[in-house]
Amino acid sequence: MASRKKNKSVKLFVLDTNVLLHDPTCLFRFEEHDVFIPIITLEELDEHKKGMSEVARNARQASRFLDEIVSGIEAHIESGIALKAPSKNAASGKLILQTQAIHSVLPPSLPVGKADNQILGIVAALRDLHPDRPVILVSKDINMRIKARALGLSAEDYFNDKVLEDTDILYNGTREIDGSFWERNGKDMKSWQDKGRSYYQLRGPDTAGLHVNQMLWQEGESPLAARVVSLTGKDAVLETLKDYSHSKNNVWGITARNREQNFALNLLMNPEIDFITLLGQAGTGKTLLTLAAGLAMTLEQKIYSEIIMTRVTVPVGEDIGFLPGTEEEKMAPWMGALEDNLDVLNKTDDDGGDWGRAATRDLIRSRIKVKSLNFMRGRTFLNKYLIIDEAQNLTPKQMKTLITRAGPGTKVVCLGNISQIDTPYLTEGSSGLTYVVDRFKGWEHSGHITLQRGERSRLADHAAEVL
């Protein structure tokens, strides 16, 4: 009776092929529950293994994992193979492979030749075979899940790769404070000045909820904008910000037009911060601010040797086919945003006239390299200012590949808008950009700002609101 009771709580998850293609480690992600793989899933896995795409690599890795689990186990394969050892204690359930034909009765309107329908038939048959335990289909295919529910079967999405269930709770890098914040945390406050900046050391109940490099702001009679410089136990040290909205502090002729842009420029112009993520809708100034700071730190301050700009080449409409020319020329159609922003940055130099502007433009273009993501593996960037545009279209694995290219003295800036994801199978919760924002928060050499207000034009702002 006890074993039956235990069996009832252990679910049987039937995996669709797209789950294995999405995350080969999914075999070890179901904890104490059992995993069932139909033969048709293995057939489809075999069809996807050729090529150099992410999907093909995942298909091969999934096959290797299955081979490691199954090899050396001849007997009792029908009853399931324990996943405890292969998963290094991450999973305690069993892997069950389909070893015989399973006959199920599906509605006659569903064509039997289609792989999806065969998997649905297997789920229906397993439900009848195991009435005492939940049998659940796991699929990334929405239509497959809808069909399963229409047939009265349990179906779920694969959630294990999601960083956040709800992107509304994604860290935005800023926090508004009020007068009571100082009352609660300012009992033993110390303050001092150094190199034109004011510093405040606080201690209190709110300091535990702060993150290093988080931006705090207060409106009212005594407005304040400060960055959390360090956290040690319950002590927090705040540093007042430089006001980049004032024309005397302009960055390559650009000034901050709102609070968040000022926060972003304070992070971008700080050589101690190696990794920055900027999120925001179209027209919030992500690329312009990043390029302006890059040019100032490369050409004026000479902290970095050159700017490298790359972006994910996912076309929004139909692809335009193969392009002739060098890597730089092939990337040119994707880099319209770069050219548009350089036009703005070049206009700020009115003193030199047309000749001066042309010379400045040539100098700027000589220090900006445009690279394709496809050739990033194995590279190391030294003293470079690396900009990754449209970063929301990267998977967490691709994001790791890119960021680990950074050598000594390199700054990496990721820009994106998680509500504009063009890559199939990526959602706001599983995007590589969401992943790095969540994982890097609180590291002393990284910063994040979510830009709120569009500054493009009154037409663009109104369109963003009403359309």
UniProtKB/TrEMBL annotation:
PIN domain segment(s): 11-146
Record carries keyword Transmembrane: no
Gene Ontology terms, MF aspect: ATP binding
One GO CC annotation: cytosol
Entry keywords, A to Z: ATP-binding, Nucleotide-binding
UniProt cross-references to InterPro entries, sorted A to Z: P-loop_NTPase, PhoH, PhoH2-like, PIN-like_dom_sf, PIN_dom
CDD domains: PIN_VapC_PhoHL-ATPase (cd09883)
Stored SUPFAM superfamilies: P-loop containing nucleoside triphosphate hydrolases, PIN domain-like
Similarity remark: In the N-terminal section; belongs to the PINc/VapC protein family.
The protein, known as: PhoH-like ATPase
